[in-house]
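Appendix B. One record, verbatim.
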Amino acid sequence: MVKLYDSGVYLLNGTKLVSEAEGEKISKLSKEEAKKGTISYGILQAHNTSNDSENLKIRFDSITSHDLTYVNIIQTARASGLDQFPLPYVLTCCHNSLCAVGGTINEDDHVFGLSACKKYGGIYLPPHMGVIHQYMRETMAGCGKMILGSDSHTRYGALGTMAVGEGGGELVKQILEQTWDVAYPEVIAVYLDGKPAPGIGPQDIAIAIVSAVFKNGYVKNKVMEFVGPGVSSMSTDYRNGIDVMTTETTCLSSIWRTDEDTKNYLAKHGRAAEYRQLDPENVAYYDGCVYIDLSTIHSMIALPFHPSNGFEIRELNENMDDILHAVEEDAKKLIKNPNLQLKLRDKVRDGSLYADQGTIAGCAGGTYSNIMEAAYLLDGKSTGTDEFALAVYPSSQAVMMDLLRKGAIEKLIAAGATIRTAFCGPCFGAGDTLAN
């Protein structure tokens, strides 16, 4: 069950949701005072360089770009007087990793990125070593930090870091020691209760959330703050898979309360000192609330053309022809070319919907726990080695090493999957041979 509240709420002691009127009466705090009790307020104000708590001028702890964006950012900063990077700047080569177009143009960009890091003091991640967000989780995110990235899915909330994806101009400003200027955003509580049922993965929960809030704009340009006892029912790696998908809701950023599992995650990556417990104060006011009983989330599927077009798989199976027909009709309105038609119903055989390809990849799907789960599901089975193809892209070399060490890669290969390097390409249709 996903429930959206019609008005603001008070959260008492991190566990009890009450209405605005009741909360003010019980706590004797106005909502303006209680707004200061959110995790978001503390982090934003700690990074605010202005004397105005409503009009923020934010300096980030670090910034990051991939090879689709860092050349223009650095060139612009150079033209504006760049002498050195004044804060940690991570340049990753995870989008244009292949020299598939334009001869050596991608490699030229990578050499430029490496030379810029040597000259100005940045951190360079070579091709195939890791996708941008997994690298930042493993090496840069920490509790109470803020990170700015020139990629839409810059989200590290599950590690206690408020992260924002922006256009390159905002990164140039940080490099030139200027600020990210923004009005103090509304903060929405995402109250998690219960725990996911067996077989329910992070993408199931992410699709359920996006489907509930995207079309109505419930969290648009707001901060999603994940609270409630259900947070601790999931591992931090599992939370990462949900958190990065909050971009699809149109929210501004995200933050989660942290716990022992967050601490253990950071410690395993050699950064135990980056942990501190983040919780809302005993009284905290939120401008809205998304209540989720995790135990009621079923296996989900997102159909074209956005993750918000989500359905429970059991619902799809019960009404397959009607649902697929509706998607095909929507496609006609969008494509407006009679020679290009989406024919999903052609993929139905004997009442079941068949896929041509499967991909486990990216900063949401290529996580260690997600791939490990797939390996055990496929252990001793076969993908068919026919027209269906399954590709698996671990999100970093560190993830790949542990999957190798524990035999998961062997299970996947034996089942017919192909193992690829850490690369963001599948997310935007690059780096693979697409089905006919």
